Amino acid sequence: xxxxxxxxxxxxxxxxxxxxxxxxxxxxxxxxxxxxxxxxxxxxxxxxxxxxxxxxxxxxxxxxxxxxxxxxxxxxxxxxxxxxxxxxxxxxxxxxxxxxxxxxxxxxxxxxxxxxxxxxxxxxxxxxxxxxxxxxxxxxxxxxxxxxxxxxxxxxxxxxxxxxxxxxxxxxxxxxxxxxxxxxxxxxxxxxxxxxxxxxxxxxxxxxxxxxxxxxxxxxxxxxxxxxxxxxxxxxxxxxxxxxxxxxxxxxxxxxxxxxxxxxxxxxxxxxxxxxxxxxxxxxxxxxxxxxxxxxxxxxxxxxxxxxxxxxxxxxxxxxxxxxxxxxxxxxxxxxxxxxxxxxxxxxxxxxxxxxxxxxxxxxxxxxxxxxxxxxxxxxxxxxxxxxxxxxxxxxxxxxxxxxxxxxxxxxxxxxxxxxxxxxxxxxxxxxxxxxxxxxxxxxxxxxxxxxxxxxxxxxxxxxxxxxxxxxxxxxxxxxxxxxxxxxxxxxxxxxxxxxxxxxxxxxxxxxxxxxxxxxxxxxxxxxxxxxxxxxxxxxxxxxxxxxxxxxxxxxxxxxxxxxxxxxxxxxxxxxxxxxxxxxxxxxx
Amino acid sequence: xxxxxxxxxxxxxxxxxxxxxxxxxxxxxxxxxxxxxxxxxxxxxxxxxxxxxxxxxxxxxxxxxxxxxxxxxxxxxxxxxxxxxxxxxxxxxxxxxxxxxxxxxxxxxxxxxxxxxxxxxxxxxxxxxxxxxxxxxxxxxxxxxxxxxxxxxxxxxxxxxxxxxxxxxxxxxxxxxxxxxxxxxxxxxxxxxxxxxxxxxxxxxxxxxxxxxxxxxxxxxxxxxxxxxxxxxxxxxxxxxxxxxxxxxxxxxxxxxxxxxxxxxxxxxxxxxxxxxxxxxxxxxxxxxxxxxxxxxxxxxxxxxxxxxxxxxxxxxxxxxxxxxxxxxxxxxxxxxxxxxxxxxxxxxxxxxxxxxxxxxxxxxxxxxxxxxxxxxxxxxxxxxxxxxxxxxxxxxxxxxxxxxxxxxxxxxxxxxxxxxxxxxxxxxxxxxxxxxxxxxxxxxxxxxxxxxxxxxxxx
Lengths: 589, 460
Fold this sequence. Notes:
The complex is a heterodimer.
Chain A: H1 10-19, H2 25-33, H3 35-56, H4 63-73, H5 90-96, H6 102-116, H7 121-136, H8 141-148, H9 151-154, H10 160-174, H11 179-195, H12 198-213, H13 218-234, H14 237-243, H15 245-252, H16 257-265, H17 267-291, H18 296-304, H19 306-311, H20 318-334, H21 339-348, H22 352-373, H23 378-386, H24 388-395, H25 398-412, H26 417-451, H27 456-473, H28 475-488, H29 495-512, H30 514-527, H31 534-547, H32 553-568, H33 573-585
Chain B: H1 2-10, H2 12-17, E1 27-32, E2 38-43, E3 47-53, E4 67-74, E5 79-81, E6 86-88, E7 94-97, E8 105-110, E9 115-128, E10 152-168, E11 176-181, E12 187-192, E13 195-200, E14 207-212, E15 225-230, E16 237-242, E17 247-251, E18 263-265, H3 278-282, E19 286-289, E20 295-299, E21 303-308, E22 317-320, H4 329-334, E23 344-346, E24 352-356, E25 361-366, E26 372-376, E27 392-394, E28 403-405, E29 417-420, E30 426-431, E31 434-440, E32 450-456
Parallel strand pairs in B: 27-28
Antiparallel strand pairs in B: 1-2, 2-3, 3-4, 5-6, 7-8, 8-9, 9-10, 11-12, 12-13, 13-14, 15-16, 16-17, 17-18, 19-20, 20-21, 21-22, 23-24, 24-25, 25-26, 29-30, 30-31, 31-32
């Protein structure tokens, strides 16, 4: 292949090959990323006999180079001569699967899984499966952890004797001496169970699962919770009670909060996996306990799942379960001592109103919403406000508006600018829900006050907010309520406020349309071209460039052009630059 | 150069014995890896020196056990914190080896502020053959390239490389005094005077604070954390010791924040011994779990104590390290020696304890026979493969011929850092800038006949 292209094409390839070992990591990385080009130039034969042996031994390199190499090799099948020769890729990937860096190992395993599908059943047994065994019985735990991820891809396609061996290897790794390997095995348990025949799931996997779930290290036990979900999905309903539930119950009451946290975090998945009957009898009390857990991290994780859990309860008994079992716990969480717990609850609690319907919401949930709206932690209040739409659908926002307003005002004036920023972002949503009348009366003044905030990020967000409001309420509303106030700031003694006027005009001109822009905004902008501060003047140039497309050509020629020409002769270099840019963009030259 | 001269003036007495030593050469930590094949030392100059044990060879059987330099590297450099106007010393406070995970070795080293993860690996091949250069490195004319060459790996002399893999920084306001790797192999903790942080070995930009004893008002500060260690096989348990002489055991299963301990070990103070120095000398300078995980050993200024994890009220055993100093506390306070932080170690079977003292003496206590011995690490009185003689300090009365009187002890020669091979009777003792490695000839009796081998630290 190389010869046919002539010598000209060899030089760049020669450079790439030499740079595989350049001292500069970046150059080596570039070369590795173009490995397919090198392989193509060398041809399949030389790639197999020269390039791959070289790569197999280059595991001394930097992580990012090794990572790129592991990824490249996953797509190399055609470059070594197709599926017939795909096993040539195994040695370099095997050595990459034993390095200490987890990301590299994981990528090597991913590539190995990918190319395993390109092996013929015979090659799989002759080449791939021995590699898995070598890794599984390696001296170092890095190789054994990598093996855990490879069992499930070869198992379905090998003979029954080899299958038995694979099961034995997996069993060994589940009881490995090092917790690293047991963790890797535990995290692949669910995946491996999926490819196993049901009889072996019952005979092998369950005992491994039980053993891992009672491992002495909690870092192993918590991974068994995840496996629990996959295993429960595989088993017939009648076996769940005897095979899975004892372990799950034990996990939900584990001594270690990290394991209970995991149960809380996976609760919705568990609930779906075990079905409605077990949910009713076992998971409801378990969930109550998690909501009352002594560790705040666990309560927060459980609080996050309240809505999802309630949604997925069987319909016939949903309301009773929520009202008698879940809601009392939720009520307690509203006044939890930990703010993360309260804020997790606040982000989902509004969702309960759709499930419980109007009457229950008014009677039971509304007092909770109101309490959270008055919470001392701004994050809790923000989370309630950001989810108002759920309640609006059920009971209408009027019920809340009396309490809502003080909460919004307080957040709008919070000392932390990030809190102010967050509430600004919910303004268009609130405006939509509360309606124009309420907005004009109560919230408009807040939106205007943000325009003169002393933090730039707030002024910027406030500008953006105005555009969204105009999109919602229309140009006429803009002309009457906000444009006069915005334009009024053009005479402010503070040049930063004068610039805000320009920024607002930039944002509003399109939404307001030609008439308002020409009639009301343009004169103000043109007048500001005489401002004594250069920053304002060059922003005038930028604004004119921005609103130019909205104006008609006559106006551009007669009004805008002279001003830009004047600015183009300004003594300040930046003003000149932006004026000239505007002239050329608007094609006024 | 100027700096060297200054140091010499200040440390005049010290330099009489170690004529080429500088402050930077003083060994600040010693640690064996889990197999005992490697031994690492850190020094005040921020260097780490790793020694490897010689493999047994037929023609020189006595050389088995000798440790030779395997790798030397600069782990930490002096830094300056511009925000706080503080100099950050490069001194290595602690070294901890990670369990071996592949052919390379990994260790954590820390100075006052920053923990680093180092990889020590061997390389014995190098690639040969370029396309654009010939064998002598001359650039070839691009037009003469008619075929592509793939580099080939050829054997070369063994090269040991140390590469920094991770830097864990910006998590400690105060000085780090301990690091400890968890038995789950994926986390470790770093401890400073007031806080303990938990790290994942693969994540450098985030750590979790698990203990915080900083009072809201610093004027109310009454105690600091002096050392902390994870349990050898229960991944959820760790202990930390305090300057008030107590040890707290925490269970990470119970809560995410371990400010509340689950066990509290403290010996009630004997009111008859109460003095101005009581609190200073009861401060714990080191705490170590036994290999079995059943016992704790603590070192305070005058004693070593062994605690049973199941008995919080008082120590199981108390050993006097140098009780003869009790009458000299006043002068030890004046020369600051009373604040020296002595470390302590267990032997492989938890039956013998070792800790350091002054005058290059170190002490061993056999827990079964209750015998104890004082040995000396020094160049003058020992040759390689000589047998160490026990030393005695004379306490009042007449001094016998082979005894040394308390008044002639040299307090500038202190043995703060020692290490014991995890399974054999080999010990490493750091005496200022010298590392002594002693090996028990008869293996069965720990307190007899240590054969001396000196590994004098050369300036790299």
